[in-house]
Design brief:
The structure holds 2 protein chains of 2 kinds.
Chain A (H helix, E strand, L loop, with lengths): L2 H23 L6 H12 L2 H9 L7 H30 L4
Chain B lengths: L1 H22 L5 H22 L5 H21 L5 H31 L5 H28 L13 H21 L4 H19 L7 H23 L2 H24 L4 H6 L23 H10 L2 E6 L1 H6 L2 H13 L3 E6 L9 H8 L7 E3 H4 L8 E5 L8 H4 L18 E6 L19 E5 L2 H14 L1
Parallel strand pairs in B: 1-2, 1-4, 2-3, 4-5, 5-6
Helix pairs in contact in B: 1-2, 1-9, 4-5, 4-8, 5-6, 5-7, 5-8, 6-7, 8-9, 11-17, 13-17
The chains are: A mainly alpha, B alpha/beta.
């Protein structure tokens, strides 16, 4: 990776973090638990990396096994995280 | 082709951001979660397109296994156990990033024999460090929350110097791994140290501080995903990872502020051990007991009631019977609300979820800052399974370890009833002055059982 593409990644990191701070400061305490389980799901974005890692040809290579492990774990986070968040948010009702 | 995939990643990133924004309002929160899930689906689909068709079988099997486990956990988990689940998922996220980083490292150094460039190599080392700490740290947090290991701080002499030495060793091994990418021994060293650091940094932290720890580990799991984004030169990983990282940091700050502790103070651990000195065992507190019938009468006579729930309510599973109590009170036109302290429960917002599960409208749940002025004009405050968050010592006693912590001013109400199993101390390990106040009455026994009796008394009145 050259310096230019690294700088772009750092730009993205800084701006996304700043945006994250701005958005999440506004989340009311009532929603903090769903926010956390929802972010569990979002951190499952590693699934993208896991898919790439799984793609290695050559069965049985260490890289591939690690990729498959990562894929299982990230999928648990994605599926479990979104489903449980939905289950919780469904319960939040105003009468 | 590649540009289409980049566009798909851009759309995912936007959906994550809009999803989080919508999650900030109770009305649109569910929709926000769906936006975010769609973003994830697009990111996955776009990545699948780039892959070699030959590996689809393994990928399919892994997704099936992970999906089934995720689905099972999400449907079976009890709302009282959400902190445990979040801790577990933080750990999974950390381990996944850790494994992706190592996979990339071993692919380059062992299979293909092309040496990674410096950005790549450094990102891998950072990802291993954060991922490893997140994984083992979260597992310890999970075991503590679940009671599989003791929630009390585990401390030993030289703990902090040891952690420092390990961190220095990690940096040294990192430099060596960077200089000798072909030699796996240094990477193995990094793996071992990062996993050890996760264990050692979480064991000294007590059960009461777990809301802080799981928020922080939540943030780490996002940062680990971010570091993986740098390894793979992938923008959507960085955007999503930063959002999670920021979210965890903010929740960590909120929790620390609500306990009047600095993050360093929480992380150094051992809170609640050092305070068992003579300053705590002051004059014996004399309490007044109250029975079920009298409690029911007080509810019947009140015109405004505030409930202060704590983790004890969750343990006793008393939230459903509290809703029945609420129905009885509302029948009598009694103003009935809940005062929620930010650190009530074992994770941020835990009480709100439990009460929502019991079908209690969220506009009845009031935050500390908004409700604290209402206590003096409230007839009856009912404290269920909360302790330190209503201890007036936080305002009045500079000697107290919780002095300065913002509390709910329950003591200022006309009458306070505390539902409690026994006179056991709260997590901070200190006496609660409130229990000896003239306006405070103790209703001893299991919260669910006693409140059930109060409700049936009220029904007969």
């Amino acid at each position: 990776m050259n310096a230019d593409s690294l700088l772009i990644l750092i730009y993205i990191l800084v701006l996304a973090s700043y945006l994250g701070f701005e958005l999440i400061t506004k989340v009311p305490p009532t929603l903090h638990t769903p926010l956390m389980s929802g972010s569990n799901a979002i951190s499952g974005i590693t699934i993208v990396g896991a898919l790439v890692a799984c793609n290695e040809l050559g069965y049985g290579s260490l890289s591939k096994w690690l990729g498959m492990l990562a894929l299982i774990l990230a999928t648990i986070n994605v599926v479990g995280g979104y489903m449980v968040t939905d289950r919780m948010l469904k319960m939040f009702k105003k009468k | 082709m590649s540009i289409l995939i980049q566009i798909a990643y851009l759309i995912s990133s936007i959906l994550f951001i809009v999803g989080i924004k919508k999650l900030g309002k109770t009305k649109s929160a569910r929709e926000g979660n769906i936006y975010s899930a769609v973003g994830m689906l697009i990111a996955i689909a776009a990545t699948l397109v780039t892959l070699d068709i030959l590996s689809f079988v393994e990928i399919f099997v892994c997704i099936l296994i992970g999906g089934a486990i995720g689905l099972y956990i999400s449907q079976k988990v009890e709302m009282t156990k959400i902190p445990e689940m979040v801790a577990l998922f933080n750990g999974f996220g950390g381990l996944a990033s850790f494994a992706v980083a190592l996979s990339d490292h071993f692919l380059k150094t062992q299979s293909v024999n092309t040496y990674p460039d410096s950005v790549n190599a450094i990102s891998i080392i950072v990802s291993v460090l954060i991922g490893g700490i997140t994984f083992t740290g979260s597992m310890i947090a999970y075991l503590k929350l679940d009671g599989k290991i003791s929630g009390s701080p585990i401390t030993f002499k030289g703990q902090h110097p040891l952690n420092l030495i390990l961190l220095i060793a990690f940096i040294a091994a990192g430099v060596l791994a960077y200089l000798n990418p072909g030699d796996p021994i240094y990477m193995i060293g990094l793996i071992v140290i990062s996993l050890l650091l996760g264990i050692l940094t979480v064991i000294p932290i007590g059960g009461a501080d777990m809301p802080v720890v799981i928020s922080l580990l939540n943030s780490y799991s996002g940062m680990a995903a971010c570091a993986t984004g740098f390894i793979l030169n992938n923008n959507v990983l960085i955007v999503a990872g930063s959002l999670v990282g920021a979210s965890g940091i903010i929740l960590t700050q909120i929790m620390c502020k609500a306990m009047n502790r600095s993050l360093t103070n929480v992380l150094l651990g051992g809170f609640g051990q050092t305070v068992a000195g003579p300053a705590v065992d002051g004059p014996q507190i004399v309490v007044k007991e109250i029975g079920v019938e009298e409690t029911a009468m007080l509810f019947d006579a009140a015109s405004s009631v505030l409930i202060v729930p704590g983790y004890g309510m969750a343990v006793a599973q008393a939230q459903h019977v509290i809703r029945e109590l609420m129905e009885q009170c509302e029948k009598r036109n009694i103003d009935f609300k809940f005062a929620i302290h930010p650190v009530a429960g074992r994770m941020p917002g835990h009480m709100n979820v439990l009460l929502a599960e019991a079908n209690i409208s969220y506009d009845k749940l009031i935050e500390m800052e908004s409700i604290n002025d209402e206590f003096p004009s409230t007839d009856l405050v009912f404290v269920v399974g909360a302790n330190d968050v209503v201890n007036p010592a936080a305002r009045t006693n500079p000697e107290s370890p919780i002095y300065g912590m913002p509390i709910l001013n329950a003591d200022k109400a006309k009458t306070v009833i505390v539902s409690k199993r026994s006179m056991a101390k709260g997590y901070a390990g200190i006496e609660n002055e409130l229990f000896g106040y003239p306006n405070c009455l103790m209703l001893f026994g299991d919260a669910k059982q006693t409140i059930t009796k109060v409700v049936s008394e009220l029904k007969e009145m």
